[in-house]
Write a structure and sequence with these properties.
216 residues; mainly beta; 14-stranded antiparallel beta sheet; two-stranded antiparallel ribbon; 6% helix
């Protein structure tokens, strides 16, 4: 069923737990992470730092937890051309504190589009296009300026000032949600317009791609 943005709650991670060592990640349709006595639970959100570049600095939901392993929900590492067997070690950090951003509006996203390189070889009359990855993701939004001093406003100020790693979560009223790691830039300069409330602006600079989860 189609949905609209109405009712969507945006949250930012303000605290990431101390990093746990990843000793290995399996090549599987859903990657199994080995991390001794990690202490995680099903439903935790983690930020992964891995020698596998495609999942480095990506956020995932945790499931199928055992004492020393857990599964990265929806993380397909089965292609050994992309994920060299035995090469996924690194660290992982759990999100321990989320802060909701209240009274936000005018959310928009840019980036994530395919990048191409155009090539023309001397012996050919026709140019060809080569895929060259994707452009960086950036999200922008506005917030009621009178939210100053609230937890969400203060979280944005702190994350912007420190440039700390964070995870942004969007939760639709259907239960579907998405995660993207990023860094915050928060502009407290007031924006005024006739017939509009006074606003301030925030920007999320994505550090990788989104991970999306359907409603349970």
């Amino acid at each position: 069923m189609a949905r609209t943005p109405t009712g969507t709650i945006t949250s930012v991670a303000t605290v990431l737990a101390t990093a746990k060592t990843i000793t290995g990640i399996s090549n599987a349709a859903e990657a199994v992470v080995s991390s001794t006595a990690h202490g995680y639970s099903n439903g935790d959100i983690v930020l992964v730092f891995s020698a596998w570049g495609r999942i480095n600095f990506r956020a995932f939901n945790v499931k199928s937890v055992t004492t020393d392993t857990f599964v990265l929900d929806g993380c397909d590492t089965s292609n050994t051309e992309f994920y060299t067997p035995g090469g996924g070690a690194g660290t992982v950090r759990k999100v321990t504190t989320w802060v909701d951003l209240d009274k936000t509006m005018n959310h928009s996203s840019s980036g994530g589009e395919p990048k191409t390189v155009t090539v023309k070889f001397t012996e050919s009359d026709v140019e060809t296009s080569i895929n060259d990855g994707f452009s960086a993701v950036q999200r922008t939004f506005e917030m009621d300026a009178d939210m100053i001093g609230t937890p969400g406003y203060n979280a944005l100020k702190t994350l912007s000032a420190t440039q700390a790693d964070t995870v942004i979560r969007r939760r639709a009223k259907t239960g579907a949600f998405s995660l993207i790691p990023g860094r915050v830039a928060f502009n407290e300069e007031e924006v005024e317009g006739e017939g509009q409330i006074v606003r301030v602006k925030g920007t999320i600079n994505g550090q990788n791609i989104s991970t999306r989860y359907a409603a349970a």
